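Progress report, Aim 2. The chain analyzed during this reporting quarter is listed below.
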Amino acid sequence: MTTENKKVFVYVRDYDGKTSVEVSSREFDSTYCSDIPRTVSAPLCEMEIEVPSISSGEAQKVLSGALLENLIEEREKLRAEFHVKLNSLSGRIEELQAIEFKGDENE
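Predicted structure tokens for the chain:
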């Protein structure tokens, strides 16, 4: 596989009191502050890294595969949530039916 050099920009970020070092392919040339999300970011350094060269078609395959994995994961999460809610509703229905049945016996 062929490779190429890419410049990346490393910066320090503080978001809601949590500090981290982040990397971006976009130039980061100034300090950024925002009161709304409580975010402060400042440039740290620039680096060149070697990355694989891929065609647009190969990139699309990677993106499609990642999207497919994400959708399958989301589907399984929804199935699990549905199962929990269905069991909860079924339990409540059974409790109400049991109360109703006991009420019929006392008459």
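The two ends are 82 Å apart (CA to CA). The CA atoms of residues 80 and 100 lie 30 Å apart. These observations will guide the mutagenesis work planned for the next reporting period.
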